[in-house]
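Allow me, if you will, to draw on your knowledge of protein folds for a short while. I have a record of one protein: its chain in single-letter code and its fold written as discrete structure tokens. Kindly check, if you would, that the fold set down in the tokens agrees with what the sequence suggests. Thank you for your consideration; the sequence and its tokens are set out here:
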Amino acid sequence: MAEEMITDLSRCGTPVALIAMGGLFKFSIIKKNLKALTAGVSFRLIVIPALMITASIAFGFRGKALTGLMCLFAAPCAVSSFNLAVIMDSDRDLTAQLVVFTSLFSLGTLFFWICLLRGAEFI
């Protein structure tokens, strides 16, 4: 019973963190952070995955291994990075925006990476 309760609580971690972060999210500050936000989202979802997937292909990774690497490098920012920004007294508004926008845009970019790699028959 206790193990089941702890398992159920552990499944709530990410949704609760997203809800808490959403409560602190400020749309009015997006303009202030637009340059850093654009750079952060593009690097996280396009530039770094392009470089790392290309390097992985050059090293001979294919199939499931390449799919795992693609998921690793093309994934959105982790929700826990917001908690770290708060603890480290960093720019929590920018971090929250990066988490939200990389999560939103990763729907399209992950689809793109999967289609590209499947079309080229790497996965």
In short: The radius of gyration is 17 Å.
